[in-house]
Amino acid sequence: MVEDVSRGISFVCNNIASYGGDPERIYLVGQSAGAHIAACTLVNQAISECGEDTSTWSVVQLKAYFGISGGYNLLNLVDHFHRRGLYRSVFLSIMEGEESLKKFSPEVVVKEVAVRSAVSLLPRIILFHGTADCSMPSAESEAFLDALQQRGARADLFLYEGKTHTDLFLQDPLRGGRDKMLEEIVAVIQNDDPGLSAQHLAVPVARRLVPEFMLRLAGRVSPF
User: What residues does the BD-FAE-like domain cover (predicted)?
Assistant: First the structure.
């Protein structure tokens, strides 16, 4: 899947202009497993660029990476997933064996001395996580942030008190009102490109789409 994501990023980087997009304004975003796979792809690409890289895109083409409710150290998550019902044997079969866990744990990879120069190539990394996330503990983002900052990477973390795994991108937008995470993302984009008009990046106050009792009911039955 990391290779698939890399090919997808390559397509965007090399074709965005022909679709009316701006190649100078490319941002990488992932949520949950998507945040994990995107982080793996980003770190792997940076490492490749420190060697004999033959890929068709570069990390310098990305303005920033936004990781939402992600997991970044699979070695720490095996037991957690097992307790949550994703049994160890099933998870390890998905990951092609226990020996692959380290390779697909970006928090672990960036701590290796050999990749110090690769970490310096990474774009700005902004992580978002709810403190009440039972599916992917917010400690995952905190530990990844610490590992990145220790290596000198530009990284930030926004924690949202009492928010679950899906609140940030699903329930909160359905509730309407101010979307704090979206506001943070827009603020990053605006800081990266002051030339953009404030009107173009204004975050509207959304109307409520679903009654609160339905969201609370969904929260009770959702496994996340």
Answer: 2-148
**How many domains are contained in the chain?**
1
Instruction: Tell me which of 69, 105, 129, 133 is the catalytic residue.
Output: 133
Mean pLDDT for the stretch of residues 153-167:
95
* Mean pLDDT along residues 175-201: 80
pLDDT at 220 over 90: no
**Which run of H or E residues covers position 185?**
helix 180-192
**Sheet hosting strand 155-160, strand order edge to edge:** 27-31, 64-68, 124-130, 155-160
What CATH number has the domain bearing residue 12? 3.40.50.1820
Q: Which domain holds residue 44?
A: 2-162
Catalytic residue flag (residue 133): yes
